[in-house]
Write a structure and sequence with these properties.
By secondary structure, the chain is of the alpha/beta class. The chain folds into two domains: 100 residues, Formyl transferase, N-terminal domain (Rossmann fold, 3-Layer(aba) Sandwich); 85 residues, Formyl transferase, N-terminal domain (Rossmann fold, 3-Layer(aba) Sandwich), CATH 3.40.50.170. The chain has a seven-stranded mixed β-sheet with strand order 3-2-1-4-5-6-7, covered by helices on one side. Strand 2, helix 2 and strand 3 form a beta-alpha-beta unit. It is globular and about 50 Å long. The two termini are 18 Å apart.
Length: 191
């Protein structure tokens, strides 16, 4: 039997998508979440990992500026894929080069609209609402050295009602994330 594909999850916040991924792959025959990293020491994503007995690490500004140590640690842990689940720092070009088309992100809008620096979480939903969009959704894409510009793997849409507001949009988008993210990550990794 071949070894499992090893995934590292990077996140910055509450970790709802990370928790969903951890649960999805908990007893998977071919894929395992092997490491969870965050740039925020108090982020709930780290607690989800600890609860699942997955090792964690804090990513520092030094790691971001010179990621050779982080790359070495990823190699030592034999990480095959990186999945960004609400990770708010830009991925350094060196890390993208080390994992070409092996870093996956989820974005809470239909890229190329509402992407780029500063467009995350409620900021995206507020912008979508302010533009009176009739639909929103999720984009799962590969990561390159530019914010939200990597090749799109998958998109799912939801309609927006005029009474939704940013909170209603967020709720609909979150439902799409929970429904699709683990399955799309799995099918992409196992291609």
């Amino acid at each position: 039997m071949s070894p499992k594909i090893r995934v590292a999850i990077f996140g910055s916040g509450t970790g709802s998508n990370a928790k969903n991924l951890i649960q999805h792959f908990a007893h998977h025959a071919n894929v395992e979440v092997s490491w969870v990293l965050s740039n925020k020491p108090q982020a709930l994503i780290l607690q989800h990992a600890t609860d699942a007995k997955i090792p964690t690490r804090i990513i520092t500004k030094e790691d971001q500026a010179n990621c050779s140590t982080l790359i070495s640690e990823l190699r030592e842990r034999k990480i095959d894929w990186i999945v960004l689940a609400g990770y708010l720092w830009k991925i350094p070009a060196e890390l993208c080069a080390e994992f070409p088309n092996k870093i996956i992100n989820i974005h809470p809008a239909l890229l190329p609209k509402y992407g780029g620096k500063g467009m995350y979480g409620h900021f995206v939903h507020e912008a979508v609402n302010a533009a009176n969009e009739k639909e929103s959704g999720i984009t799962i894409h590969f990561v390159n050295e530019h914010y939200d510009e990597g090749n799109i793997i998958f998109q799912a849409k939801c309609s927006i009602d005029e009474n939704d507001g940013p909170e209603g949009i967020e709720k609909k988008v979150r439902a799409l994330e929970i429904a699709h993210f683990p399955h799309i990550v799995e099918s992409t990794i196992l291609l």
